[in-house]
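Q: What structure does this chain adopt?
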Amino acid sequence: MQKDFRLESVHKYKKHILDLERDKLLYLFNIKDELECRKNEIIEKINLNKTEIEELKKRGDFTFIELYEKYINNLYTQHQKVCKYIESVDREIEKQRKIVLEARTEKLVLDNLETKHIESYKAFQRKMEEKFIDEINSIHYGYKDI
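A:
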């Protein structure tokens, strides 16, 4: 029995693949966080401009209201685009999550195989040591009998 795990190169490869897939998933989560921040900024700008419009209306200044409303409409379209992009990133995250789970399962299978190999090698080694000790004892006691 060999001491080295025969599938060690496959095990390292699967671990590397798992690390790459996890990195992709983290990258997607970072993109989603940035988009969520961008969405919140847009909402804050919309609310700020709405309050400015209300203040202008209270003062009776209607000159820039049309510009504010166009800007708010532009912000709404940006908000919709960001929301759609967040939805697409969410779909990509779910796909990537499944890929990571699959890669993790494959790596765990190889981990278990490696553990079993190590245990069986240790059992083999103990058996060989016992056999060697028995041979030494039989040789030792064999010479005493002479």
